[in-house]
């Protein structure tokens, strides 16, 4: 497993640092929503990459949405997990070693409303791009 390589975008790197240093005491809540830290393996570098994402818990699984705010391209963390689906989700002080996969169209139809309950802006993000925003199931 590679070494951790912080995000080049300083606000993300700082958020991850605060979250990890405090087991989510600082950094768990963002804009009124809960946050998890998703760790993927860089597809080109092999480095560990950590990304704060909206916490969507559904039964024993975590759902993450590859929205990138409605951008027309996929976020790098999503491309990373396509190459290596072994991920870690940190939910406050709990670490979960999981396998990530993109939801099928049928699963997305069922689970998208669950994601919208946690972060209603996902609907606006999907409306502003032609890209089908992936819903990822981590189980």
Describe what this molecule looks like in 3D.
Strand 4 and strand 5 form a beta hairpin. Strands 1, 2, 3, 4, 5, 6, 7 and 8 form an 8-stranded antiparallel β-sheet that branches. The longest helix is centred in the C-terminal third of the chain and has 14 residues, at 105-118. The protein is built from 4 helices and 8 strands; from the N terminus they run H-E-E-E-E-E-H-E-E-H-H-E. 30% of the residues lie in helices and 32% in strands. The mean pLDDT is 97. It is of the alpha+beta class.
- Number of strand elements: 8
Structural class estimated from helices and strands: alpha+beta
How confident overall, as mean pLDDT? 97
- Amino-to-carboxy terminus distance: 20 Å
- Outline the biggest β-sheet: 8 strands, antiparallel
% residues in beta strands: 25-35%
Q: What is the helix fraction of residues, given as a range?
A: 25-40%
Taking all Cα atoms into account, the compactness measure Rg is: 14 Å
Number of helices: 4
Task: List the uncertain runs.
Answer: none
Shape: globular
Note the run of SSEs as H and E.
HEEEEEHEEHHE
């Amino acid at each position: 497993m590679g070494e951790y390589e912080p995000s080049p975008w300083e606000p993300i790197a700082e958020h991850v640092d605060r979250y990890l240093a405090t087991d989510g005491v600082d950094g768990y809540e963002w804009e009124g929503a809960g946050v998890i830290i998703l760790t993927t393996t860089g597809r080109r570098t092999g480095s560990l990459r950590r990304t704060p994402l909206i916490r969507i818990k559904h039964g024993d699984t975590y759902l993450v949405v590859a929205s990138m705010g409605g951008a027309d391209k996929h976020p790098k963390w999503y491309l990373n997990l396509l190459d290596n689906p072994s991920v870690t989700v940190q939910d406050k002080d709990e670490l979960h070693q999981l396998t990530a996969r993109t939801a099928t169209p049928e699963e997305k139809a069922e689970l998208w409303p669950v994601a919208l309950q946690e972060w209603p802006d996902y609907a606006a993000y999907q409306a502003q791009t032609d890209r089908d925003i992936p819903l990822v199931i981590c189980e």
